[in-house]
Amino acid sequence: MDNVKPSVLRLEDITMQFGGVVAVNNLSLEVRKGEIIGLIGPNGAGKTTAFNVVTGVYAPTNGALYLNDNLIITNYPRGKMKEFYQGENKGKYTKSMILSPDRITKMGVARTFQNIRLFKDLTVFENVLIAKHMNIKANIFSATFRLNRKEEQWMREDAMSLLRILGLDKNKNDIASSLPYGKQRRLEIARALATKPSLLLLDEPAAGMNPQESDELMHFIGRIRDDFDLSILMIEHHMQLVMGVCERIYVLDYGINIAEGNPAEIQNNPRVIEAYLGVDE
Amino acid sequence: MTKKTKTICSIIAGLVIAAFIFYVGEEVSSSSMLRTVLQLGTIYALVAVSMNLLNGFTGQFSLGQAGFMAIGAYTYAVLTIPVDKKANVYYLYGIADSLADVELPLWIGIIAGGLLAALLAAIVGAPVLRLKSDYFAIATLGFSEIVRILVGSSPFNRITNGSLGLNSIPGNPSYYTPFIVAGICIAIIVLLLTSSYGRAFKAIREDEIAAEAMGIRLSTHKQMAFIISSFFTGISGALLAMYLGAITSTTFPIMLTYNILLIIVIGGMGSVTGSILAAFLVTAAKEWWLRFLDQTMMIGDFQVPLLRTGFRMVVFSLILMLVVLFWRKGIMGQKEFSWDGLLNLFKRVKNRLWGNSKKGGALNG
């Protein structure tokens, strides 16, 4: 297996426990360069929690997370958690390293949200432009007194070309919350792409879309993967979409990874069918 | 409207305002209410805009403005009271030895007032900005009270003159000083708000979680907004000391913060032009237009009921309640003044007054 593509994201034994609830239990997952990976599971299975761990919103209770094979987050049960910890691999990890979401975004991980979180009262253009702020070199004084003209202009041009690529340039000056639903979703992706990610996390991108729209979305996801040289990890409930676009799929149920494999394998996996449909008594 | 006509309109409007200020400065007697309202309104406009920078644009609801104004005012006063008048001012407690010979130029005093306020904001901000919404408001409110009590307390007698306060503070070198200083400060704030950092502030206001996911570091950006807002609040405090000529710790009660909050609520949270407009409106209403409510009035032999000292504030509070109940977004909401907006307003008013009754009728069905 010497043609294996380099790993972009790797989770090792990630456990996330809130009080007595284990939301994600011992999840190991890998995204390789250029792959589109699906993360599926019934409601409350811990998919979004896993996303929040990857993006730094939550610090995992136990486990390690690697980006491009560099360890960036690791933790072990500490303090009160020492007694309460119900997950596995206790004692395997002994270091604690936690990063805030903005740092993780700067490392090239961008995300969208399950319930759209645009900057509602700002224009479409501003929404994308704000994502360009994180790489600003000028400090607050030179930015205020417009000593960074070139940089500002470059940010604007970049944001504009992104809007053009995603077909949102006509809505440039519209207030974000006034856009139709599908375009809001698209804007959220545009905003995420503006941070120049190498890994894109999509949290239910097709939620609330009709079959035709989600079909378009499927092609769109494939297209941005190629155009922006991305790896994509997505949570999705529309099975048609997931099966159509994902190369590998991980299935979570009650926080536990019950299956992984390519779409065909997943479709025929009895444990997955059981998790989704229940089992005959 | 084309861009060119808009620019011309803006230039004309700017000139008219400048001419008006100039006219009042040259022709109107110095004791007139108009002058008072213009100068005081300008100072309030500056505090309101800097409060709006933090509360309306960054979404961090601070109630510490009075405290930062007090710091700016006292710093300015302590540094600029003329040496030969110091013995008179500090007649009871004496003055700290290190300050006895200090008499700095006025502009240094103003900037020092802003800088000290900013420094304190930097120290207080690190722990306080970790708090969210109401807790942050309460913490800053507490800070403001602490400052007010400290400057009036005995350990600082030899610096702040304790409860006696400071007087003989050098006043405005000219009638135009507050306009120039506040004008420059507001211009800087507007430039900041339209820069990339200003956009980041707005992103934090809109959605902290999304802002963080876009790579905006919350702690440093909130800290920046807090420090800059405090800096300009300190400067406006210095301007207030300059205008009043005498200050005590009771010049900066919590009520002062609420007054400014009122201005930004009426003007619109997140609108610079709204804050400026409301600063003048509120100041004029409070100091001038509603004054008659405080005097007993006789129509023939009939004494108009209710009109007596203090009634002004009752009416004022009522107006406020009405604004908050029915006009929650204030005058401008989050928008800024624009000529198109003004034109639309005219059109709407025109439509409502004349014609369009057919269209309007359908709505009542």
From the helix content, strand content and strand pairing of chain B, which structural class follows? Answer: mainly alpha
Oligomer: heterodimer
Mean pLDDT of chain B: 89
Helix share bin of chain A: 25-40%
The tally of domains of chain A stands at 2
Helix content of chain B: 55-70%
Strand count, sense and barrel status of the largest sheet of chain A are: 6 strands, mixed
CATH superfamily caption of the largest domain in chain A: P-loop containing nucleotide triphosphate hydrolases
Number of helices of chain B: 16
- Per DSSP, the total helix count of chain A is 11
Largest sheet of chain B: 2 strands, antiparallel
**Global outline of chain B:** globular
Cα radius of gyration of chain B in angstroms: 23 Å
> Tell me, what is the CATH class of the largest domain in chain A?
Alpha Beta
Pattern of helices and strands of chain B: HHHHHHHHHHHHHEEHHH
Strand order in space, largest sheet of chain B: 1-2
Largest beta sheet of chain A: what is the strand line-up?
6-7-8-3-9-10
**Structural class designation of chain A:** alpha/beta
Biggest interface goes to:
A-B, 37 and 25 residues
Briefly, what is this?
The complex is a heterodimer of chains A (281) and B (365). Chain A is an alpha/beta fold and 281 residues long.
